Amino acid sequence: MRIGLGLFIGVVLSAWISIAFILEYLNSRRFARIKKNIELKRRQCDVCTAIYFVAVFSEFWRCPRCDSINKEK
Questions:
Q1: Predicted structure pTM score
Q2: For a Cys-Cys bond, which of 17, 58, 59, 66 suits 48, CB 3.0-4.6 Å?
Q3: For 12-16, 31-35, 39-43, 57-61, which range has the lowest pLDDT when averaged over its residues?
Q4: How many of the other CB atoms lie within 10 Å of CB of 41?
């Protein structure tokens, strides 16, 4: 029984691609289950007095309305 080279390469590549997709799917499912706890803090722009919610860990933040850079008080 003789297998053609093209058939052999096709089967090997198809199997490799299938395994890669399965592993990527399982990996993305694992990361989707991780709960993200991002705390936001209410801050007011010093220039335009607009109020926004920004991440707690950022000391400096840019106002989306007037593009001024503000510092946490």
A1: 0.41
A2: 66
A3: 31-35
A4: 13
